[in-house]
Amino acid sequence: MGLLNPKQYTVLIARTGKAPVTLLVRPRIITLFALASIITPLVFLGSRIHLLRQKNEALAQENYALSETASEVIQELKSLDSEITTLRERAGLSAQESTDGGDAETDSRGGVSVQVETAELLAIAKKRIPVLSSRLYGQVKPALNETLDEEAARAAARPKGVPVKRNFRMSSEFGLRRNPFGWGYEFHDGLDFTGATGTPIHATAPGVVEKAEYQGGYGYHIVIDHGYGYKTLYAHLSDMAVDKGDSISKDQVIGGLGSTGRSTGPHLHYSVYRNGNSVDPADYID
């Protein structure tokens, strides 16, 4: 065994004209040197690979978080875009292209899926923000304000409340009733309020006086045009405090309760007209 596996070798190096050099070489040392020459680079590479893997994982987590943030921004912008579209419809604006280039109403999509990088997502978001801002503040908000103003004006034009504020009683309702002057029935196109002669009569909505005159059936009477298809009639007045063409505010006193024209006693006949047709004033009373 000693010959097959010696603990050392003798190496003789001959030199011309000089004495030979003798080297004693142990196999274990050679093996260790050989292993060291192989293992050292492997350890170094393994360490570098480990560091690179850690950096890659950190970058991946950072990129994932950034990607999630970008995705959330895009989703939020889409939500805002949808809300602005709803406001556009409420404001009566016509449909137009969406901020990402598609049609707001017929946004058909398809094709091969392509991954979008985080930087591209943020670039898209950066481009969409000023577009949404311009649409909201440049188009939608002014139009919506006009629409709200229009709705407010329409609501204000609607007659509301009673024209007699105190000491009154309703003596006749809207619809079919007995003829107070004889036999049979007649259609009564308003409400009658009884009270003392001279009791103040108030306009039930702002508007412009269309009529302020005397006529056989209604006696002294006033018609106010409130706009948006609304008109009101105040008849059998004892006196009139306004003239044709006057602008009237809600609750303004326009005359006094009386019994002029076709009347059996002091009362106010009050009618409401919508688009030229008489409607039940009871539907317009608080």
- Percent of residues in beta strands: 25-35%
Q: Structural class of the secondary structure composition?
A: alpha+beta
Question: So what's the overall shape?
Answer: rod-shaped
Mean model confidence by pLDDT: 75
Kindly provide the radius of gyration, computed on alpha-carbon positions and rounded to a whole number of angstroms.
48 Å
Number of strands: 14
Could you give a short account of the major beta sheet? 10 strands, antiparallel
Order of helices and strands: EEHHEEEEEEEEEEEE
How many DSSP helices?
2
> What share of the residues lie within helices?
25-40%
Give the terminus-to-terminus CA distance.
122 Å
Outline the low-pLDDT stretches.
97-106
What does this structure look like?
The protein has 286 residues and is an alpha+beta fold. It has helices at 27-91, 118-157; strands at residues 9-15, 18-25, 169-172, 175-178, 185-188, 191-194, 200-202, 207-215, 219-227, 230-240, 247-248, 253-257, 267-274, 277-279. Helix 1 (27-91) packs parallel to helix 2. The chain contains 2 helices and 14 strands. The relative contact order is 0.09. The protein starts with 8 loop residues before the first strand and ends in a 7-residue tail after the last strand.
